[in-house]
Write a structure and sequence with these properties.
135 residues, mainly alpha, 6 helices
C-alpha cells in the first residue's frame, strides 16, 4: 500500500466550482438578505463577507455530495452554523426581530441552524435582549 501525497490529498478535497444547486442558492441568498436588511426595526444589519460566502459554497460543493443522502440542506446547515451564526451578536428587540425573521426563512431540514438560532433567541429574550453565541 502506497501513501498518498500531500498534493493528491489536497486535490481530493479542493472544490472545483462555486456553483450550488438553485434551491440551496436561493436559501443562502435569502439568509444573506435578511441579515443585510437595513430596516431600523431590525436593529443593526449583519454583513456576510464575500470570503464567508465563498467558504460556504466551497464547503457545500465538497461536503454536499457526501451528506445529501440525509438531507439536501445538510451541508448548507453545517456551513451556516459554522460561518454565519457566530456573526450574530447584537442588542435590542429589533435585533431579536431580525433573528426571528431569519428563523422563519430557514428550511426545516436545517435542524442544526434552527436549533442554535432558537437557543440564541431564547437566551436573548431572557437576558435583556442581548443576543449572540457568546451568551
Amino acid at each position: 500500500m502506497e501513501a498518498i501525497s500531500g498534493n493528491d490529498f489536497i486535490k481530493a478535497f479542493q472544490p472545483t466550482s462555486l456553483e450550488i444547486p438553485q434551491d440551496v442558492e436561493q436559501t443562502l441568498l435569502s439568509i444573506i438578505s435578511v441579515l443585510r436588511d437595513d430596516r431600523l426595526d431590525f436593529g443593526i444589519p449583519i454583513i456576510v463577507s464575500y470570503r464567508k460566502i465563498k467558504a460556504i459554497r466551497y464547503y457545500y460543493n465538497i461536503a454536499g455530495p457526501l451528506m445529501s443522502m440525509e438531507s439536501r440542506y445538510l451541508a448548507l446547515d453545517y456551513a451556516v452554523s459554522q460561518h454565519i451564526l457566530p456573526l450574530l451578536n447584537g442588542y435590542g428587540q429589533g435585533f431579536g426581530k431580525r433573528l426571528e425573521a431569519l428563523l422563519n426563512i430557514l428550511p426545516e431540514e436545517m435542524e442544526r441552524s434552527c436549533r442554535l438560532l432558537k437557543r440564541s433567541i431564547n437566551h436573548g429574550s431572557q437576558n435583556l435582549f442581548g443576543y449572540g453565541n457568546n451568551l
